Amino acid sequence: MQAFRYWLIALGAAVALALPLVSGVAASSSESTPPAPDGWSRADLSVLASMRLSQLPAAPHDPSNAVEDVPAAAALGKRLFNDARFSANQAVSCATCHDPQKQFQDGLPMARGVGQGTRRAMPLAGAAHSPWLFWDGRKDSLWAQALGPWEDAVEHGGNRSRYAHLIAAHYRAEYEAVFQALPDLSQVPPDAGPLGAPAEQQAWRALDAKTQFAVSQVFANMGKAVAAFEKTLTHGTSRFDLYVEGLVRDDKPAQPLLNASEVDGLRLFIGKGQCVTCHNGPLLTDQHFHNTGVPPRGPAQLDRGRAAAVARVQQDAFNCLGRFSDAKPAQCQELRFMATHDPALEGAFKTPSLRNVAERAPYMHAGQFASLNDVIQHYAKAPAAAVGHTERAPLRLSEHEAKDLVAFLGTLSGVVQVGTGP
C-alpha cells in the first residue's frame, strides 16, 4: 500500500512538472509573453517557484503529541534539550550532536555521544515536516525521535527511572504545568529501564506494570516537550529564495543575487543533474527513502537502512499507535499503511533537506564524502550499491558543470530560526 502511495506521489510530481511544460510551449508561441530573466522558460519558473521557502506550509499537526503547540512545553523542551544531566556521563545533551551553532548537527562524520555512533547526526530545522525521523525512518514522530538517543548505549546511555528522578528533582514545576502531576517515585530505583546494563534491566523487571507505565509516561512526556521545542526550529530565507521571488515578481535588483556560475548550477539542478527528482519542494527533499549507491565506510559497516528500520518503528512502544500516543488509531495513517516488504528499501536512506547544505560537511548517512564536489562526483559515476540496488544511472557532467552545481548549493544557506513556542 505504501509503495503504491509513493508511486502515486511520484506520478503526481511528474504530472505537475509536465503541465508547466505544456503551458510553456503555448506561452512561447505567443509574441505577447516576454522571456523570463536569465533565459528561464515558463516551465522552469513553475518548478523554481515551487521550491521557494515562502511556499512551505505550516508544519503538519502531530495528533500523537497533544502539547506540540503549547509554549510552556516548548520552553521545557528547550531546557531538556540542553541539559547534559540526562546522560550516563553527565556530559552529553541533545545539543551535543545537534549544536545550534552548527545548523543543529555536529560536523562529524559519525555522531559521538558517550560512545561512537555509526551514522551522521541529522540537522533538526524543518524536521517537524517529516513523517519519518532518522536516516532510516525508525521513528514516526519528533517526540519518539527525541526518546531514542536518551536510552541508546552510545548516545546518552541513560535509563528511564534515572530520567524520571531528574525531572522530579529539577523540573517538577515546569513538568506539572504542562502535564499531569508526577507519580510517586519513592519506591522506584535510581537506575532501571528496559534497555541498558543487565542490572538496569533486572531492576526494571522487578517493578510492577503500573509503575513501569508511570515511569514510561514521564519519559514519553519528556520527548513530547523536546518535540515542541524542535518544532520551532525553522529555516531562514536564502539567496536562492530571494532570487526566485524576484523572478516570480519580475523584479530587477540593482545587484544580481546569483552570479552566472550559480545560475548555471541551478539550471543543472533542475535539469541535466536530475537533483530535483528527490530534492524538491520548499525543503528540497521528497521525505522518502532512496538507495543511491552510497558506499559504506568499510566492509564491517554495511547498512540496510530503511529495510531494517521497518520492524523497529512498527514495534516501537512510543509509535503513533502505542499506549503513550495521544492519537486515535485512524490518525496514524503513515504507520498503518507503511511499506513492509519492498525490495527498494534495501540500502535506502532518507533524502535530507539541502537547505544550508554548504554549511554542514561531511555528507551522507555516515559522512562518507568530505565535500559537495565529492557528492556530485558520486552521483555522476553512480556506482553499484553495496546493499540492494541503486536507483541512479551515471551522469555525464563536466568538471565545469560540477563546479557550477557546487556554487549553486552555496546559495541555499539561511539563518536557522530558533523559537521557544509556536
How would you sum up this structure, described in words?
It contains 15 helices and two strands. It is mostly helical and 422 residues long. The chain has a domain of 160 residues: Cytochrome Bc1 Complex, Chain D, domain 2 (Orthogonal Bundle), CATH 1.10.760. The N terminus is likely disordered.
Write the layout of secondary structure elements.
Layout: H1 2-28, H2 42-50, H3 71-81, H4 94-97, H5 142-151, H6 160-170, H7 172-178, H8 198-205, H9 209-230, H10 239-249, H11 260-270, E1 289-290, H12 306-315, H13 333-336, E2 349-350, H14 372-381, H15 399-409
Number of helices: 15
Q: Which CATH top level class of the domain at 71-230 fits?
A: Mainly Alpha
CATH superfamily name of the domain at 71-230?
Cytochrome c-like domain
User: What is the string of helix and strand elements?
Assistant: HHHHHHHHHHHEHHEHH
Mean model confidence by pLDDT: 91
* Strand adjacency order, main sheet: 1-2
- Report how far the terminal alpha carbons are from each other: 34 Å
* Overall helicity: 25-40%
CA-atom Rg in angstroms: 23 Å
Q: Strand-residue fraction?
A: under 5%
Oligomer: single chain
Segments where pLDDT lies below 50 for 5+ residues?
Answer: 1-32
CATH 2nd-level architecture of the domain at 71-230: Orthogonal Bundle
Here the CATH topology of the domain at 71-230 equals Cytochrome Bc1 Complex, Chain D, domain 2
The SS-based structural class is mainly alpha
DSSP, total strands? 2
Biggest sheet descriptor: 2 strands, antiparallel
